[in-house]
Amino acid sequence: PGAILFDLANGGDKTWGEFPPYWDLGRQAVAAAAKEFALGNAGAGLGATAGHLKGGLGSASVVTADGLQVGALVAVNAVGSPVVPGTRTLWSALYEQNGEMGSPPRTLPDGDIALDGLIKGFPGGNTTIGVIATNATLDGAQARRVAIMAHDGLARAIRPIHTPFDGDTIFCLATGTDGDAVNPEGLGAIGTLAADCMTRAVGRAMVEAESLDDLVCYRDWLAR
User: Fold this and answer.
1) Is residue 18 a part of any domain in this protein?
2) Pseudo-torsion of CA 83, 88, 107, 94, nearest 10°?
3) What is this structure's pTM?
4) Quick one: angle between helices 140-157 and 184-208, nearest 10?
5) Are 96 and 141 in contact (CB under 8 A)?
6) CATH number of the domain encompassing residue 66
């Protein structure tokens, strides 16, 4: 399976004939895989947008005391906004760990949150794509459950999410290097951590992104 941020309708030269450049780009991405990698405008985050702001690539992870590892990687390209209406607060700020988001403001709106004027998208224009990776031993059904739970992480970080204009997709990978099969209780714990990491990854994508052309990044917008 695979997923992309659709960019065939964004202008530019598409006269590549039978050999689109994406094959080579995919191979280059695999060859460049490493434990340390760039966020923000890197990779799939380059042309991403999130509401009225520049989107980007974000990542977050957690390691429990007993050695369980859960990580999230996400390309934030959503119709919805990562910012609480009427404030400069990221929805994901509450989940920040160790200043990973630059300690953004955590203010609440004075009144009710507006419910109108939130969706201004078009078909094929947006999607947020992510992956959860863990060292737990999961079968296919369990990995699917973790991916489902991880979508809650998107819902905590972006509003609205899963709109008719979004193609939001999360995959789950499990290496199986952390021991025996997981029981339902353990699976729920992994899914919870996955959702938390996904929320944090969205926040990191926003603070790591840089302004590009007429797209203003969160940090520059916050400084105004």
Assistant:
1) no
2) 50
3) 0.93
4) 40
5) no
6) 3.60.70.12
